[in-house]
Structure formats: C-alpha cells, structure tokens
Amino acid sequence: MAQGEDKMTLTNRQGHPVDNNQSMRTVGRRGPTTMENYDFIEKITHFDRERIPERVVHARGAGAHGFFETYGTVGDEPITKYTRAKLFQQKGTQTPVFVRFSTVTHGNHSPETLRDPRGFAVKFYTEDGNWDLVGNNLKVFFIRDAIKFPDLIHAFKPDPVTNIQDGVRIFDFIMNTPEALMMITFLFSPWGIPANYRQMQGSGVNTYKWVNEQGEAVIVKYHWEPKQGIKNLTQQEAEDIQGKNFNHATQDLYEAIESGEFPEWEFCVQIMSDDDHPELDFDPLDDTKLWPTDKFPFLPVGRMVLNRNPIDYFAEVEQVAFGTGVLVDGLDFSDDKMLQGRTLSYSDTQRYRVGPNYLQLPINAPKKHVATNQRGGQMDYRVDIAPGQNPHINYEPSTLGGLHEATKIGKEYTPHVEGELVRQVIDRTNNFKYAGEQYRKFEDWERDDLITNLVNTLKPALQHIQQGMTDLFTKCDPDYGRRVGEGLGIGIKNGIQSNKSDTEFGGRPIGTSHTDEGVQDAENKGHSADPY
C-alpha cells in the first residue's frame, strides 16, 4: 500500500489512491475542464462500457451457487452400468454448481410474471472440467430443427416496427409450424408462468447420451424435480402480482437462500437404448415430444442444493456463460437436430457477447488444471500455461517442452453412421396426438386458463390465422378446437365472423387482455400538471 492508504482506500485501476472523488479538475471553480482528468476519464470510460451486450434470449435472469450430490446409482442400478462420468460414480460426492434461471424472450429488466418459457441452466465444476446442462422449465420445445430457431425467436420477439410483442405474428408462425402445438399447449396454460424459480421443474429438453467404460452408449433425458413442490400462476394472478412486484421471482430466490431455506431439486434421467425405436409413434430424438414415463420412468441420480447467493450480480449472473457442447468424459451428444445446432450457437454467442476469453472469468473458469495453446484475443489477461511449460511453444506436437495430449480413459465410443446427406424432416412427426393428450390431462382450471389465454391472443389476428389455429387445435382434440373457436366467435365449419381482412399489426403480448384499455386509462386517468 502507498503511504496513507488502508485496505478500504479508494484507488483507480492503476492503483493510484483517489483523494477527491467529488470534483473533476477544472480551470477555476466554474471550469472549463482539462483533458488530463485521468481519474475522471478512467471512471467515465469504464462506466460507458459497464454493460456487455444483452443476451439475445434468456436476458432476464437470476442465479445462485450450490452443489450437486450424487447417489452413485441410477434408480436401483449402479451408475457405472451406463456412464463413466466421474461426478456420478461415488455416492455422496459433491460437485460445485452455479445455476442461472431466466425468461427466454424478454429483456434484461422485463417483469418476471410474463408468459414465457423459463431457462434452467446448470454449470457443474467437475474434476474433469465444466459440464453445462442448459435447459428450460418445460420439457419440450417449439421446433425440432435448429435452422428454424432464429425464425421462432423473431416471431416471439417484439415487432421490429412497433417494438411490441404481437400474438398475431406469433400465431402466423405457429400456424405454419404444427410441431409446436405441444409446447403451445403448455405455454398458454398456467405452466407458461411458474410461480417462482424455486418451485419450478427443469429439463435438459434435448436428448443426450451416456457412455460407459466399455464404450457402450444409451440415450438419456435429464430432469430436475423441485422438492419444494411445483406451483404455477394463471394469467390474472400473474398480472396482479406484476402490479405489486415485477422482480418477485428474483427476490424470492435471493431471500430463500439468505434465510437458510435452501431450495433443492432431485436430478433424474430417463434412459432408452441407442436406436430409433420403431415401436414408438415418434422419434425419440424429437424434442417436441415427451418420453412416456410408463415405459421410460424417471430414475433418481442425485440432488442439487442452492445455498449461496452471488456476491455481485454482474460478475456472476450476467457474465456466466453456458454451452450445450460443454460435456465431460462419459457424456456425449445424440443426433438431436436442435442439440446439434445449439452446440455451435451457444458457445459462439458467448465469444461474441462476453469475448473470446470469457472462460478466464472466475464464474466460467473450471476449478481445475487448465493449460491450452490458445493465445491473444480481446481481454486476454493471462496465459493458460502449465507449470514448467516452455513459453516459446504454443503449438502441439513439440519436442521442446510444449503441451502433450492426455492419456485416453475408457474405450472410445464410436457410433456407426451411414446414409445420404439430405435436407428432410424426421419420419414420425405426429404433431397433434400428444398435444391432445396433454390437453385432456390438464385439470379443469388449467384448461380454462389455456383457452382464455389463446383466445385473448388470437382475437386481433387475421381471419385465416384464427381459422388455421382453430383447425390445428381441433386436430389435437375436438373439444380443444371447439372451445377456442367459440371464444373467437367462429365455427369450425361455418366460416369466420371476424371483420379483420387486411394485414394489421399492433396486437397484444401473448396471453394478455385489456391492453388497449391500459393505453387509454393512462391518458384518461392521468393527473394534469402545470409545467415547471
């Protein structure tokens, strides 16, 4: 420390003690200022750069630290039968984790009561390096091919002209994407608005693989089941809460951990042999489908506890970076088309958003030995060099003291692949059956809320979109389509009594009602004031 400093003394980033943090250097009391205001220049230019680009999706989030504890078994069987991943092997082994919960579509400070899927991403800091399990609260997705992801998100994001989310645009896309009907059935029901993050399920959504010591593989689905129970909200309940607290889920998570009421989830997998399963009427790699639990039960693997809040939101929750391609030995990829596309997209996004050296940040860095030949790039503040490594050698192979390859552990997994290179959809699409089954499984109040939210969102839509969506819901379940049609004032066979025949935009966000009244109320109920 410099003379006169103590551990709490304010400095700039150069380590210079700051003895006046109230005023810039000026010519006289009134100025002007001079160019050599270093403390001000460093402070303000850093402030100008405080915000990294907002995530395209999953911008609004909350997070916490904790641990995962393995049971050492999968169901009643030793886990070694299915995977050699080290973090699962020894009963009671605890692995540090960081979890980020989020909403998908809306911005960084959007209300947490909006109808939207919730992200549920877990970073495991394992002894073999990081494993990222990146999923959602809902166990299915809208699309099954990653090439459609930008279109999906553009449809759900605000209109590029009005900057308002518009259900007309959304259902224009969904009407032409019937594989999304299962997800739409969940999203517009109370399951589309979880009550908070603690009482929310999580799912890997995509199909992955486990590989054992012999190089044999099975396909798996991952699930997080909250031990606090599951709670969801109706649209009206969510709107009431939003008027009181639009940060309610973040506050709930923070206060629960701060008070020692640590949220906990049980980690389960479903397991299926690694083939195309012709006995099923859907493709097991199709992420718009659920695997039936009567054939493929949830098998407990371990538990996760969140027990520590972040010290700094920006450094941890905002800069944490996940990728579906971040796996460890014993875990592998399936041919799920969404997973394959996400594996490129996620890490590419982090390198653009946070920078090529984002893995050097403490929240993202593995808690183990790291040594690479990667050099340079924006914000490269250290070199991942091994003790004793020749600093002149940043390539491999070398005989001059460079890094060398690791010793292979376990038999390599080598799946057989053959076929023509094509651009085709999967064989067993079955877009309607399971959405209908889910509709019938809902309780009455869940069905009522689903129909209300769909009708409210579709009311501003054009005639052909209203009719098209009603027809699709009817294919899922006749009662489903009938109730939506009646709510819209149309008949499935008798045509449409809507007066919307031209292209119109400026509809309402999904699920909401009375949005036009809100605009008018703001003017009519606003209190006049004199200028000052």
UniProtKB/TrEMBL annotation:
<dbReference type="GO" id="GO:0046872">
    <property type="term" value="F:metal ion binding"/>
</dbReference>
<dbReference type="InterPro" id="IPR010582">
    <property type="entry name" value="Catalase_immune_responsive"/>
</dbReference>
<dbReference type="GO" id="GO:0042744">
    <property type="term" value="P:hydrogen peroxide catabolic process"/>
</dbReference>
<feature type="active site">
    <location>
        <position position="58"/>
    </location>
</feature>
<keyword id="KW-0479">Metal-binding</keyword>
<feature type="compositionally biased region" description="Basic and acidic residues">
    <location>
        <begin position="514"/>
        <end position="532"/>
    </location>
</feature>
<keyword id="KW-0408">Iron</keyword>
<dbReference type="InterPro" id="IPR024711">
    <property type="entry name" value="Catalase_clade1/3"/>
</dbReference>
<feature type="region of interest" description="Disordered">
    <location>
        <begin position="495"/>
        <end position="532"/>
    </location>
</feature>
<dbReference type="GO" id="GO:0004096">
    <property type="term" value="F:catalase activity"/>
</dbReference>
<feature type="domain" description="Catalase core">
    <location>
        <begin position="11"/>
        <end position="404"/>
    </location>
</feature>
<comment type="function">
    <text>Decomposes hydrogen peroxide into water and oxygen; serves to protect cells from the toxic effects of hydrogen peroxide.</text>
</comment>
<feature type="binding site" description="axial binding residue">
    <location>
        <position position="346"/>
    </location>
    <ligand>
        <name>heme</name>
    </ligand>
</feature>
<feature type="compositionally biased region" description="Polar residues">
    <location>
        <begin position="9"/>
        <end position="25"/>
    </location>
</feature>
<dbReference type="InterPro" id="IPR024708">
    <property type="entry name" value="Catalase_AS"/>
</dbReference>
<dbReference type="Pfam" id="PF06628">
    <property type="entry name" value="Catalase-rel"/>
</dbReference>
<keyword id="KW-0349">Heme</keyword>
<dbReference type="InterPro" id="IPR011614">
    <property type="entry name" value="Catalase_core"/>
</dbReference>
<dbReference type="InterPro" id="IPR020835">
    <property type="entry name" value="Catalase_sf"/>
</dbReference>
<dbReference type="InterPro" id="IPR018028">
    <property type="entry name" value="Catalase"/>
</dbReference>
<protein>
    <recommendedName>
        <fullName>catalase</fullName>
        <ecNumber>1.11.1.6</ecNumber>
    </recommendedName>
</protein>
<dbReference type="Pfam" id="PF00199">
    <property type="entry name" value="Catalase"/>
</dbReference>
<dbReference type="GO" id="GO:0042542">
    <property type="term" value="P:response to hydrogen peroxide"/>
</dbReference>
<comment type="similarity">
    <text>Belongs to the catalase family.</text>
</comment>
<keyword id="KW-0376">Hydrogen peroxide</keyword>
<dbReference type="GO" id="GO:0020037">
    <property type="term" value="F:heme binding"/>
</dbReference>
<keyword id="KW-0575">Peroxidase</keyword>
<dbReference type="GO" id="GO:0005737">
    <property type="term" value="C:cytoplasm"/>
</dbReference>
<feature type="active site">
    <location>
        <position position="136"/>
    </location>
</feature>
<feature type="region of interest" description="Disordered">
    <location>
        <begin position="1"/>
        <end position="32"/>
    </location>
</feature>
<keyword id="KW-0560">Oxidoreductase</keyword>
